[in-house]
Amino acid sequence: MSVWRDFSARRFLDRLSDQLGIAVVLAPGVLAAVDQHGAAVRDILAHGVSASAVAAGAVLLAGYARGVLDEAVEQGWRLPAIVDWANADWTTLRLAAVCHLARREEPALGA
User: Fold this and answer.
1) Would residue 108 count as lying in a domain?
2) Does any domain span residue 110?
3) 111 in a domain, yes or no?
4) How far apart are CA 63 and CA 98, in angstroms?
């Protein structure tokens, strides 16, 4: 894996995290929803790629997030200026989960 690709992926995920306002402490109910989405993302990525690719966690997470964003924008979704976490939609929660996984100190996909 290219160091530059990993750096670019991390920058993308950090920027997305900042845009979503994830630095704000999430309420327990919202954090539970984000964790559920995170588990789904881990499962999707772990079963959808070869074992050698799982080690490239940030790159895979960024690619997945870009895919979710592209599809959502195509369907008319827009990143909210301010997220109402108590009423966040599926796309916002899924993107928050991807960012949350990327920020964990352990490997994002449990590799």
Assistant:
1) no
2) no
3) no
4) 10
Alpha-carbon gap, residue 75 to 42, rounded angstroms: 24
Tokens at 52, concatenated: 């050698």
pLDDT value for 59: 85
Place of tokens 């960012």: 99
Distance CA 108, CA 111 (A): 8
Provide the 10 A C-beta neighbour count for residue 104. 11
109 or 57: whose pLDDT is higher? 57
Q: Is residue 82 part of a domain?
A: yes
Closest to 62 measured CA to CA, from 110, 2, 7:
7
Domains contained in the chain, number: 1
Q: Over the chain, what is the mean pLDDT?
A: 79
